[in-house]
Structure prediction request, 158 residues.
Amino acid sequence: MNSLSQSTGVSEASSHRVIQILLVEDEAFDAKLIKRAALNAKITNPIVHVESGEAALSHLDKTKGTEQRPNLILLDLQLPGISGHDVLRRIKANPDTATIPTVILTSSTQRVDIDAAYIEGAAAYIAKPVGLEGSISIAEAIQSFWISLTYYSEPPGD
Prediction:
């Protein structure tokens, strides 16, 4: 066991597991831009893209207890059907998904959306940039913090 493992109680194997990312984005152009920016930022983690709140909740249910369960969720607020706010509330209300960090990645910079997202349990709130360059900057920030530095809880039952 290395010194990090001894001081934190986290084994080396669990600290180096593959981080699964769930991208919840209804706009195909934005999803493609985010994925391209992720590649440019050298994010090699699996990114599963779903286009609606319903699909996100279904994916979380389907991957419960599996290696495909997301460790990080990137969530747009403006979604067809179930809104991003409703998805966030449901994620945080469910003991099986409550510990998954959910980063809001949306075009809204309205104070009411920002405040509500944090009250509902968002781990961070990021306004979508315009263009590839801004998207790469955000992807690099996600890479350096959420992928390289962050430890994730294990799903219940693991």
